[in-house]
# Entry
Amino acid sequence: EDKVVQSPLSLVVHEGDTVTLNCSYEVTNFRSLLWYKQEKKAPTFLFMLTSSGIEKKSGRLSSILDKKELFSILNITATQTGDSAVYLCAHRTGGSNYKLTFGKGTLLTVNP
Amino acid sequence: DAMVIQNPRYQVTQFGKPVTLSCSQTLNHNVMYWYQQKSSQAPKLLFHYYDKDFNNEADTPDNFQSRRPNTSFCFLDIRSPGLGDTAMYLCATSTGLAGEQYFGPGTRLTVT
# Structure
């Protein structure tokens, strides 16, 4: 069974800190790995990663995938209170099944 | 703006009373998904439609059904809700090739 494991499960930091969120996966038919941000509503898409070693960036957020070691990290620099959310990592299988398997998420709290 | 819309946003129903949740999209995506997300848990895929082809997850209870009358609309029917069905229900869409899933705002269902 495909598995996505995120760590830590929760994290509390101060504004301005840099954080790294981890996602490891065990899957049988890898296609892509996705990161979502979820506040008190539906998840919003952040990144989709398909190739190892290529960093994706969006403002203060960046992410990279290591397909050999089966993990991805999400970095947030100069954190702000608005970054407080649950960050979900999900694996998308290949083939005709478009299923996303989510990890349990990392709850990030950024204090002023 | 192209988007995924869910109605209602909040629904309270009684134990055993059928309920229907609605999802519509203006993205013209061919794949539509329904997820169940219980408190502090990851979203869990219930089923998805690829065009008119229905794909049920093996562990989705028979109590949950879905209809997709056209490309734009998809419904989640819960025939006899139990207390354990209290959750956020998320609708998402994607194009098969892109892999990114765009989520609606969710319907928060409470079964009393």
Summary: The two ends of chain B are 36 Å apart (CA to CA). The mean pLDDT of chain B is 91. Residues 13 and 111 of chain B are 5 Å apart (CA to CA).
